[in-house]
Structures are given as structure tokens and as C-alpha cells.
Hints:
The protein is α/β, with parallel strands linked by helices and 286 residues long. The protein has 11 helices and 11 strands.
Amino acid sequence: MKKKLFLVLLSFFLISCTSSRPSFTLDSYPIVDGSTVTIPLSEAICAALTEKTLEEVRPYIIHNKTHTAYLNLIDKKADLIFVTSPSADELKYASDHDVEMVVVPVVAEAFVFLTHATNPVDNLTMKQIQDIYTGKITNWNQVGGEDLQIIAYQRPVNSGSQTGFLELVMKGLTPMVAPTTQVIADMGGLIDVVASYDYHSTGIGYSYYYFVTDMWGNENVKLLKVDGVYPDEASITAKTYPINTAYYAVYRSDEKKSGDVRRIVDWLLSDQGQRLAKDAGYVKVR
């Protein structure tokens, strides 16, 4: 029988709300990696479980971005990663190396679209977003805005936000090939170029809610409603915002059932762990 490659654990709701908090030293703490957007979460978890300050644990928490984190987990260079969902390339890499991954949603998240703060457009339908990124809609006046060309920014293949964009938004549709200048290497750079005065009102881009609101705020951009719903903690929690996702704790399935990695994930899903995630600025998953 072919070994399963990608497991999403939905049983986290059954985990005890009183899961005991594991305890570590900085030397005994598992090797973690992850996405840029989960660095504050990873630091907060390590600080809580080692009883150290954020400043003390920061040198020990190195996130190499989403794609490298998956490769490091599969290659056994990391024990636990906090990431967005895996891309097709990452799943293939795991399959080629006969590695089964356990993927557990640990905090709720939303995939968001942003434009310049002065853009009069404040809402797009999912269909309009898809049409913008397939090149069917090219001017803001086609969606109720000014007569200006739409510059639709993207992220590189295998970046966490590009994988999210393809899976959550395009859903099998092929986006237009963007010029090199419209493929932005990092999430912060995408926000900044949309906010730039030089591209006044014309740019659109995408990211994750937490990154835009808590990690890389810029007063010159605004989040767009999608299908009439604005992304905020309330709409993400209630799942009324239409592009819902999560950040995941991912580990290899050969981790011991009572081992350190599984104990950390179980604790993160407890009431105490979810409060820590909320205090770090994330939206609780349960």
C-alpha cells in the first residue's frame, strides 16, 4: 500500500484543554524552523516552555522561510516547523524521500488582498480577484475605481504566500505570467511597493492577515473586503471572511507518540497554548 504523504489532523479539538506544559532548557528544546510570519509565535512558545524572555530565546529561533523549512524537516535538519501549507514541490520532495508529514492547524489565519490607501475601491469579489490575476480585468475602472492600470503583484513560486494564493484563491486557474519587476521576493517588500507613492492607487498584492497587521504595518496600504467581508479577528474567528486558512505545526510522522515535538503541539492546542498565541497577536484556532 502506498504510504500516505500529507496528513491534516483535525482531531485537535479533542485534545485536553488542560494539557500539561512541557519544560525544556534552551539546549534540550527541539530544532524548529518555519515561515517568516510565524517567527513571533515560535519565539513565544520557546520562551514559555523554557521560562526565558523573548530576548533570550531569539538567537535560538531561526526561521529560514517556508520552502527551506519544509526541506529541512524532510531532510531531518529540523524537528518541528511552523509554516503555511506545503506546495506541490514540497509534497513531491517529501514523497521522493519517503517522508510522511503530520500537519496540524495551530492558529487561524486569513489570506488578504491589499492596495494603496487612497484607492477608492474597497471591495472585490473572489471572481474579480481571479479575473485580475488571469489578466481579464486590467483597469481599476472595471471594478468601480479610477481609470488606472492595475499592477498585480505576485510572490515567487514556493513562497508561503504564493502557495496560499494558488491554493486558496486561484483554485486551479493559472495566473498570468508577471514581469520580473512584479514578482516581489519578500512579503514586506510587496507591502512596501503597493504602498509606494510612485505606484499611487494602481497596485494590488496579497499576504497573510497577521503579517500585514502585526509584523509589517504600513499606513499607506489598506486591506480589501472580499465578497463584502472585511478581514479582522472577528470575521476570521467566525469564518465569515471567505479566504480562511491557518498556520500549521508540521512534523515527521515517525516522531515518538509521547516525544517532545508532539507534546509541544498538544500544549499549543490547549487553552493555555491558545492564550499564548492570542497574546502574540494571532487568532486562536479553538
